[in-house]
Please model this.
Amino acid sequence: MFALDIGTRFIVGLISEMNNDSEIIIKDFAIKEHENRAMLDGQIHDVTKVSKGVEKVLLKLKEKNKDIKNVAVALAGRFLITTVGEYEQDISNDKYIDFNLVKSLELEAVKKAVENLDIENNFYCVGYSVLYYELDGEWIKKLEGHKGNIAKVKVIAAFLPKNVVDAMLAVLELNELEPVHITLEPIAAMNLIVPEDLRTLNIAMVDVGAGTSDIAISKDGTIIGYGMVPMAGDEISEAISKELLVDFKIAEKIKRSLNDEGNNIIKYKDILDFEHEIDKEDIIKIIDPIIEEITTKISEKILELNGKPPIAVMVVGGGAKVPGFIDKLALKLNLSRNRITLKDIKNIEYVKFENESLEGSEFITPVGIAYVAHKNEGNVFARVMVNNKPINMMLVGGNISAIQALLQAGFTINDLVGKPAPAISYELNGELKFIPGEKGKEAQIKINGKMASLNSPIKPGDIIEVGKPKNGEVKKLYLKDIILPYKIYIDKKEVEIYPKIIKNGIEVSIEDELNDGDKIELKNPTVNTLNLNSSQVRFSINNNSYEIPSGHILLRDDQILNDNDEIFDGDKLYSKSINLPKISEFVDIKPEKHINITLNGNKIELPVEEIVVKDKNNNKIDINNKVYDGMQISIEKHEKDIKLLDLFLHIDFDISNFTKYKIFINGKEIFSFNEKIQNGDEIRMIFE
Model:
């Protein structure tokens, strides 16, 4: 286990293991002091500089310990908020209570604590302590291994601002460290120096660091509260700095030298480069007011949490090592001096050192971090398995989904969701359009052997199996997929008709394929695209072909539409039946040769050519006949002799109304209507 304590003044890294006797063995350690004040009051202010300090600790440890990836850390109690949560569950179907079930119950209780917390969602749970367990309504020291119907757990959970936690996680990420255990510094220290058997006693633990003084209280077998005072060793150093006019680093050295035995005179150089000597007693007088203030605030916080003075106080941390600190705290709590002690790591019997040993109260917290990590106490991280690989992640703060575990396990989105098929872009009437490709399909997910999804919730101990995703299928698209038909109405009946489509300069069908980069132009359809007539009348005259509707016309607002007239979306049109035309309507053949005669003094022009219309069988037909489908006719002109009878075809005169008449041509009486007429003839008719 690699434990990392990022304190306000020092960074301490420990490599440790725990044996079967629950002894923690420190195998290696490295200590690095911050080069400048990158941390204030226990909070990371300069992520980059703190990260570089952690990097130096890692480099030192990696000289003997090559593979350091997972890390246990703790956070100081700056801006600490605590609350209580409890949770119970029916466990009658479980064979027995295992570790994962206990962990799940505890984290569900923490979630309840989150719900009870009247703050915005910008706080993280950074640790918790179990107040008690119950099994079927009875208190029990440990649930694991038991069987029953109803299990219950009550916890006290600690919360810190999101930015405090995120800064810590950012430092770890920059050093490629994966957090497997995160907790609160007073939880770590309390678990080390006040084990479970001592928690029946009302004991206060005070961790006086550089930036904060963290407090934990035990009573009746559990930890009943956590607190924090935003004052500690830095305030003492700052008091020295201001009074002696030295920078903070020199003030720190002067403060630490107060515990050196022997010489009582301290030499230093101020910021103006003047050298000075000062007696230790004079420095103690300088810091006495600030120690008075710090111990007063600590005692007030203890009394607030506990309601009365505890029976004993255990103090840890380097900030409490200055002379007079312990004495003043005992006085403030009205405790005899032998009821308060400054704990030293070397005096804890179940902490062993494989090689070089550590000494001092300042190492209680880093060893405590390793200790609770080995025992998995107060940890908001839990383990799940992803494709047989263990993953530790924070399972507090709402429902945690499978995708969060998979991303932490190193999966990328491309590993979990197939790539979409390529999109198609095209121009439609000059406007650029896009059609996204088919979405990729998610990898198959199973949780504990059952089908699940990326968004399925997970809990401690879950086994997640992940398959391979599928890329989106490339499918053909057609113009009919992007072009809507016009809706028009003919005689109040809806008819759909597609516009005319020009693709890349060529007219195409609606069934044509759509390709990336196509340029499409739509034009209004025309009447002839409607195909309203079930048949057409087709015929020929002198080998010229004709095709006409079989008797219908189309109108828009009483206006007759021709075949090439445009149709518009939403048009309301009407149809009307018509008679078939005569042959004469399609020909323009007139006689060219004529003779002139005079009839009763009136000059008349008579054609000497006749129009002959014959069908395909060479039979003569009337030019005023109607056309019909399949008709094939020829029209010719022929010269003919003009007879008297032909004259009556060109004048409006009915001889049937008369019984007697006489006809004279050029003065000669004619008795037959078949008499020929010549150019210039003078004809006279007398009727009685």
Q: What stands out?
A: The chain has four domains: 74-379, 389-466, 477-578, 587-687. Residues 587-687 form one domain. The CA atoms of residues 224 and 493 lie 83 Å apart.
